From TrEMBL:
Organism: Domibacillus mangrovi
Binding site for S-adenosyl-L-methionine: C257, A258, A259, P260, G261, G262, K263, D281, D308, D327
Catalyzed reaction equations: cytidine(967) in 16S rRNA + S-adenosyl-L-methionine = 5-methylcytidine(967) in 16S rRNA + S-adenosyl-L-homocysteine + H(+)
GO cellular component: cytoplasm
Root EC class: transferase
GO molecular function: RNA binding; rRNA methyltransferase activity
InterPro entries: MeTrfase_RsmB-F_NOP2_cat, MeTrfase_RsmB-F_NOP2_dom, NusB-like_sf, NusB_RsmB_TIM44, RCMT, rRNA_ssu_MeTfrase_B, RsmB-like_ferredoxin, RsmB/NOL1/NOP2-like_CS
Name this polypeptide is given: 16S rRNA (cytosine(967)-C(5))-methyltransferase
Transmembrane regions: none
UniProt subcellular location: Cytoplasm
Domain SAM-dependent MTase RsmB/NOP-type residues, every copy: 168-438
């Protein structure tokens, strides 16, 4: 595929993301497969697609003084992706970027559009982009410089302060390292690192989880260890959850929102594949992934069932489980680096709706926990109200539970709630809280 086609594909994808709200990561994988792209083309497409979406608000700020009126959507996106390359990529000369943008504009539109695109990009080339430091208001400046919606920056500043918010927003523009989890039933972490290094991966141990390996170069999904079910691709923050649950071999565990099964498999590995794990998810097609994962890792104690977790009481007796995990559907604001379109798609109203769903799932889980059993609530989001608010409301309405310190992890939170920020150690933003059901005679 020629370089021109990569940019046309990027434009098509960016346009569809904006029009339909589809997730860019899913569409990107499809486009790479459908067009049978080489590694180089796929890397450039990924860079342009993610980069342009990631920096959308900054690019719009840069473009604004050069536009007399807002162009139609695809033209606006063509300008954004061309400017992204001009400002952030140094691989391609600016005149080549402009030349290609003009050709795409001619092909998709007409001569008039091509001449407008040419005029705007050449003016920017001549005059340079405006300086974000001229923005007086700090909240607005952070929003524009880091391309996060103003409501979100405001909300994070109120919850976590301006300095933390800016650091987090800046970090959300970086590319995450890949981390993998070692199935230590099959191989030690030390041996796995050696094997990965032999296969050419830049692999090193993580300080965050004793099961984790950081991969600085290469895609470990292509390693022999992955095929043999010795490693799984999982973010380091996600790897903190299963140890907190503290399930031991032989216990009966329920994973209420299990797909695609990363944490279910981790729990099973920590239980030495003994005992019984029931894994629920509301989506049948996603449960296939849980099954595939379990098979690849040779884990036979995972039993999947399609079920809305809010109705789990229909299929399980009260006080059945030693431990229950609610890895809840959430706003996902901790994974903006991986899903850049998410920050523009979410609204404050969404956060409220998600909290209601989470509280309903927790309420359904509560009666199913045995006396002295544990309930862990986790999300991959950074939002005080959604996370801490859910915990506070749950505990206020379920006095039979008490908060429990988080053990078996390297990070010691100040309270019983752990909020991991994406800039803390480079893992996803994550939240974990653990509750224990009181014994009745107390
Ligand atoms: C954060 S993801 C879980 C990730 C999973 N625990 C892992 O580690 O791979 C949340 C999951 O909840 C599922 N879900 C959403 N609403 C649900 C509900 N009412 N009952 C059960 N599952 C639900 C979604 O389909 C999604 O797979």
């Amino acid at each position: 595929m020629g370089i021109m086609n990569v940019r046309e594909t990027a434009l098509e994808l960016i346009d569809t993301v904006e029009k339909s709200g589809s997730y860019s990561n899913l569409m990107l994988n499809n486009a790479i497969e459908k067009n049978n792209m080489s590694g180089r083309d796929a890397a450039l497409l990924t860079e342009i697609l993610y980069g342009t979406i990631q920096r959308k608000l900054t690019l719009d700020f840069y473009l604004a003084p050069f536009l007399k009126k807002k162009p139609e959507r695809w033209v606006n996106n063509l300008l954004r992706l061309s400017l992204y390359q001009m400002v952030y990529l140094d691989k391609v000369p600016e005149r080549a970027i402009i030349h290609e943008a003009v050709n795409i504009a001619k092909k998709r539109g007409h001569k008039g559009i091509a001449s407008m695109v040419n005029g705007v990009l050449r003016s920017i080339q001549r005059e340079g982009v405006p300086d974000t430091k001229t923005i007086q208001d700090d909240t607005e400046r952070i929003s524009i410089e880091t391309s996060h919606p103003l409501w979100l920056v405001k909300r994070w500043i109120v919850a976590y302060g301006a300095e933390k918010t800016e650091a987090m927003c800046q970090h959300n523009l970086t590319v995450p390292d890949q981390t993998v989890r070692v199935n230590e039933m099959k191989m030690t972490r030390h041996e796995a690192i050696e094997k990965l290094q032999e296969e050419g991966f830049d692999a090193s141990p993580s300080d965050v989880s004793s099961h984790a390996i950081r991969i600085a170069k290469g895609n470990a999904a292509k390693s022999s260890l992955y095929t043999k079910g010795i490693i799984s691709i999982q973010d380091e923050s996600s790897m903190l959850v299963a140890p907190v649950l503290g399930a031991s071999p032989g216990q009966h565990v329920l994973d209420m929102c299990a797909a695609p099964g990363g944490k279910t498999a981790h729990i099973s590995e920590l239980m030495n594949n003994k005992g019984h794990i029931d894994a629920l998810d509301i989506h049948e097609h996603k449960l296939k992934l849980v099954k595939q994962n379990a098979e690849r890792l040779s884990l036979s104690n995972i039993h999947v069932q399609k079920k809305d977790a809010r109705q789990a009481g229909d299929i399980f007796e009260k006080e059945t489980f030693d431990a229950i995990l609610v890895d809840a559907p959430c706003s996902g604001l901790g994974v903006i680096r991986r899903k850049p379109d998410l920050k523009y798609a979410k609204t404050e109203k969404d956060l409220e709706n998600l909290q209601t769903i989470q509280l309903n799932i927790l309420a359904a889980a509560a009666p199913l926990v045995k006396e002295n059993g544990v309930l862990v609530y986790s999300t991959c989001t950074v939002d005080k109200e959604e996370n801490e608010g859910t915990v506070t409301t749950f505990l206020a309405t379920h006095p039979e539970f008490q908060p429990e310190p988080l053990e078996h992890i390297s990070i010691q939170p100040k309270s019983t709630m752990l909020q991991v920020f994406p800039d803390d150690f480079g893992g996803d933003g994550f939240f974990i809280s653990k509750f224990r059901k009181k014994a009745k005679h107390i």
